[in-house]
Specification:
single chain, TIM Barrel, alpha/beta, Immunoglobulin-like, eight-stranded parallel β-barrel, seven-stranded antiparallel sheet, 500 residues, binds alpha-L-arabinofuranose
């Protein structure tokens, strides 16, 4: 048995947590939309064909915002294909996922789904095959109350009130050669800056997100952010980060340390923002929108025999339907802890994605919906982080272990969130085989309110169609005596303990 100790001082400097940290992402990809959120004829479908069993799970997950419609998909998307009478909408090729897009769901339908899911809609514009004019058209359609051709078209299409979309992504992963219409940092920065300034001429309330790097290991990482920020500084509010993690080295302790990479990624992007602020002699606070993050076995996807036949364009094929283990869920919980720890810089984030596609929620056409293991740490973290919560980073005194990818890493990670009444600590034990005693000094709190987490004798256990409740939340014994919280963390576990 090892030991870890730390102190939580709620009066120590701490950052307010933006509720948009608990956002997610729905792309026209695979079965994310069709047979995911939308399946007319399903026994659980509502009057608009949305699956109510999925809506119930989305609400339980506690998602606050949803980014839409992509992802790679957006970079060749024509938004106007998805509005107006459904029967006359075109069927288009989606080159990014080699699929046929029927356009049954578009902006107006998806906004209605967001209302039913009680989430804020966040939109991305196409800066791959399109540009300023189409972004302005979409903004006019979405946000202008009426009196112009496109805003009146929205009213005529059955949405009298504007969608009032606040957050807009200026393209998607424009640094990646896989992106339809990808660009150099210089080209993208100029286009994104011009687009942002033009969009603000229509609606000055917007919060605009410029594309950062697709992942930290991109050869252009760092230089890309600097160049793009130099071109767009005056006109945008946030820069994006994207990161996906997997056990690519087949080294569980190293995989469990993935949040260390996310910590460093955020620190480096924050440093780049500060560098450009200095160059600009500016005190403007540009935030980070971590608008794609998750565990995703990208290598497995890339090795798959993908469809590229010119006569084969399936609608809603099964793509990226990763099945998550307990170990994956522990990493997801740790990644959320990294986002909370950086709440002073990260203003929004999106778990990628929401349903069926690398998702916490799975569905079967005509069949049930169920929670993947990754559902649990997200739902608990979102629920226990109240609207007035502040993040308190903590220094954990714990044994370390060596990893190839991340260097020396503590066996236990912890972060705390506090509000006037509660202190909640989130903890991870990264040891594959050793339980760890934790002792945390929590100033000003006397009772454990809740102590739950995810672990299993088999860290590879998962929930499947045939065994949908194999893995769930467990209660972890925890005591708080004279301000000292104690608990024993099982191997490979993520835990949340709320005290009052
Ligand atoms: O989320 C899956 C894909 O990952 C997105 O379409 C893209 O933006 C990223 O590379």
């Amino acid at each position: 048995m090892s030991e870890a100790r730390f102190v939580v001082d709620p009066s120590a400097g701490s950052a307010p947590i933006d509720r948009r940290l608990f956002g997610s992402f729905v792309e026209h990809l695979g079965r994310g939309i069709y047979t995911g959120i939308h399946e007319p004829g399903h026994p659980a479908a509502d009057d608009l064909g949305f699956r109510q069993d999925v809506l119930d799970l989305v609400r339980e997950l506690g998602v606050t915002t949803v980014r839409y419609p992509g992802g790679n998909f957006v970079s060749s998307y024509r938004w106007e294909d998805g509005v107006g009478p459904v029967e006359s909408r075109p069927r288009r090729l989606d080159p990014s996922w080699h699929s046929l897009e029927p356009n049954t769901i578009g902006l107006d339908e998806f906004a209605r789904w967001c209302t039913r899911a009680n989430v804020e809609l966040m939109l991305a514009v196409n800066l791959g095959t399109r540009g300023i004019e189409e972004a302005l058209d979409l903004l006019e359609y979405a946000n202008v109350p009426g009196g112009s051709t496109l805003s009146d078209a929205r009213v005529a299409n059955g949405t009298p009130e504007p969608h009032a979309v606040r957050m807009w992504c200026l393209g998607n992963e424009m640094d990646g050669t896989w992106q339809t219409g990808h660009r150099s940092a210089e080209d993208y920065g100029v286009l994104a800056g011009r687009t942002a300034r033009a969009m603000r001429q229509i609606d000055e309330r917007l919060e605009l997100v410029v594309c950062g790097s697709s992942f930290r290991a991109m050869p252009t990482f760092g230089a890309w952010e600097r160049t793009v920020l130099e071109h767009t500084w005056d006109a945008i509010d946030h820069i994006s980060c994207h990161a996906y993690y997997s056990d690519k080295s087949h080294d569980l302790p190293e995989f469990l340390a993935s949040p260390v990479d996310m910590d460093r990624f955020i620190d480096e992007v924050a440093a780049t923002i500060d560098h450009v602020a200095a160059l600009k002699r500016s005190d403007k606070k540009i935030g980070i929108s971590f608008d794609e993050w998750n565990v995703w076995d990208v290598e497995r996807y890339e090795q798959q025999d993908k469809r590229h036949d010119i006569d084969d364009w399936p609608i809603a094929p099964r793509l990226l339907e990763d099945s998550y283990t307990v170990a994956d869920a522990v990493v997801v919980g740790g990644l959320l802890m990294s986002l909370l720890r950086h709440a002073d810089r990260v203003r929004a984030a999106s778990l990628a994605q929401l349903v069926n596609v690398i998702a916490p929620i799975m569905t079967e056409p005509g069949g049930p919906a169920w929670r993947q293991t990754s559902f649990f740490p997200f739902a608990v973290t979102a629920r226990l982080t109240g609207p007035d919560a502040r993040a308190v980073p903590v220094m954990v005194d714990a044994p370390h272990y060596d990893t190839t990818a991340h260097g020396s890493v503590p066996l236990v990670d912890a972060v705390a969130v506090v509000d006037d009444e509660t202190t909640t600590v989130f903890l991870v034990n990264r040891s594959p085989d050793t339980a760890i005693d934790v002792a945390a000094e929590l100033r000003g709190r006397g009772t454990v309110v809740e102590s739950v987490g995810i672990w299993d004798a088999d860290p590879m256990a998962r929930n499947t169609l045939d065994d949908r409740e194999r893995v769930g939340l467990q209660q972890l014994p925890a005591t708080l005596t004279d301000g000292m919280l104690t608990a024993t963390l099982p191997p490979v576990c993520w835990v949340a303990i709320q005290t009052r």
